[in-house]
Write a structure and sequence with these properties.
- The structure is a single chain.
- The protein is of the alpha+beta class.
- 31% of the residues lie in helices and 23% in strands.
- It has an 8-stranded mixed sheet with strand order 5-4-3-6-2-1-7-8.
- It is elongated.
- The structure holds adenosine-5'-diphosphate and magnesium ion.
Amino acid sequence: MNRIRLLPEHVANQIAAGEVVERPASVVKELVENSLDAEARRITVEIQSGGRSLIRITDDGFGMSRDDALLCLERHATSKIQRAEDLHGISTMGFRGEALPSIASVSRFSLTTRERDSESPEGTQVIINGGKIVEVKAAGSAAGTSIEARALFFNLPARRKFLRAEETEAAHIQHYLTLAALAHPEVAFTFVKDGRTLWQLSAIKNDDAPIAALRERMRQLSGTLPSLIEVEVSENLNERFTDDATHQLETQDPKLPVRLWGLIGAPGVARSTREDQHLFVNRRPVENRGINHALIEGYHTALMKGRFPVCCLFLEINPAAVDVNIHPAKREVKFRDERAVRGFVTRAVRDALLGFHSASASPPPPRTPSAMEWLSTRPVAPDPAREPALPGFPAPVPRLPMAQPAPLPLSFQRVPPPESKSEVQSPVQPPRAFAPNPQSPILNPQSSNSPTPLLAVPLRLVGVIGRLYVVLESDRGLVLLDQHAAHERILFEQMLTRLERNEITAQRLLLPETIELAPRDAAFVRSVLPVLTRLGVGLSEFGERTFLLDALPPMVKAPDARGFVITLVDELKAAGEGVNPLRLGEHVIAKTVCRHAVKANDPLTGPELENLVNDLRHCAMPYTCPHGRPTLIEMNFRELEKKFGRAQ
Ligand code: ADP
Ligand code: MG
């Protein structure tokens, strides 16, 4: 008996709809993507009841002829690809030809369209009810396309029941629209929800400065912006991937040009969710764990554990090197060489963060003694000229000179890209390359909207409160410095520099001590002994489970040397195995330094505080402590005025 039969078209469409049309937001996404593919300059999105009763998308794109208007509702009807090979180089948002028939099969659907380039004022209207064509007629309409999906899932009660509260669905829609609006500042977006216009975003034309356009669009969307820094990097990647056909590991030549541009939060700017982390690959909003990781790695110590970067980043890459056809809603993408892309993103982010500070530092004054030096020479002889600095409100307080960042510790240094950065052609038509401003944009706030880093403006010392927070004043307002966090950062970087240069000088203990460990701990310590030695921890084997401790790292002021080593071992163990030992070491240094850094309530004198700020200026990543907590907080005059009710 024959059991198999072909499903009728409308059933097939409904099945496809199960994948494509997950919820109202997916309808909005598919339709807006079609409008973008049709080169619309203005897109209006109207929804009612969270998209359950109405979704209407109207665009001024190139529209469709009568024949196309009918054909586009067939499954696998698309103008965007023709052959299977085209799947390897997709530069449009859509390509499967599934969205319209799917949506039409699960809603009361109407499509009205007129070709932008045609002379005739007459357009076409197609009305479909749950996948069945009800009417096709000529209709007068503006050039472009308007698609309406009413009563979504009216013919699939089970799916309709699964829809969430209207507000939830509306929020999903708005989230998608935010992404589309960020990716296309050149398009005007209007969003009308239940008859109320929520957004009217005008088009931002700025091909020469896509980052400025992006910033402006972000401002349109959210009003005030956190402190954001620009990223603009192109590179040629050395890809390594396995060829599907031959299963051979191939190294592609010519190299793969990639470009990353956009805005990322300045050090210390972060959120507890990924909500403000927007990633686009060839302008398509995507989720990609590899890039998420790369971002966090790029932030390194500028991000608190458990916090997420704020960013809006665009990766432009040859469409052939990325597969967008792995997810029904194309939310995820897969790179041919994930590692290469990941490394590139990490480098780009790290360089931007480091550049944020280094570009801002101006002519170097004579190098002040480092935090290390003043720690070891304390107490500092009071300088009578500066002495009135503390406590209370001082007479003229010296301006702290600006410092040039010291040479970066190696682990912070910009990793040179594998290839020269010049002559990189972006594969997709991106906005024209952002011409690097000869004057650093950061130094020139008028010419760009980039924030001026706090340590680039002169700071005057006012006092210390709570024996921890240093109060400073700048021309912009009030600045607070967490003495403990700042010191941690300074020590951390100095330690890294020494580590990289193999300059760890240990302080010999007057009386070496023996430490006996549990057998497992002993084995573990043996495995990390080289790292410990590099850190300045003078441990050597003295028996099966016994070690001799004869030196400590220089800045460790541990009255209880044994206790210090035992905590260190515990911390090392907690940091986990399977991690590259050097990285593990770095981690632990941060923690150790933290613990043994200047105590919160150590009173510092005026000159010492100045040195602290100067030393911070010499850091590569001065705005956060090694754990990503901010070292400095600013409250500018505007914010103060607001607080005092002097301004709105
Ligand atoms: P896909 O986008 O994958 O090609 P769709 O089902 O979303 O599939 O759309 C089918 C076709 O209909 C598109 O390829 C395009 O030619 C046409 N189309 C859809 N929406 C529009 C629009 N807003 N303006 C112009 N043409 C459109
Ligand atoms: Mg489409």
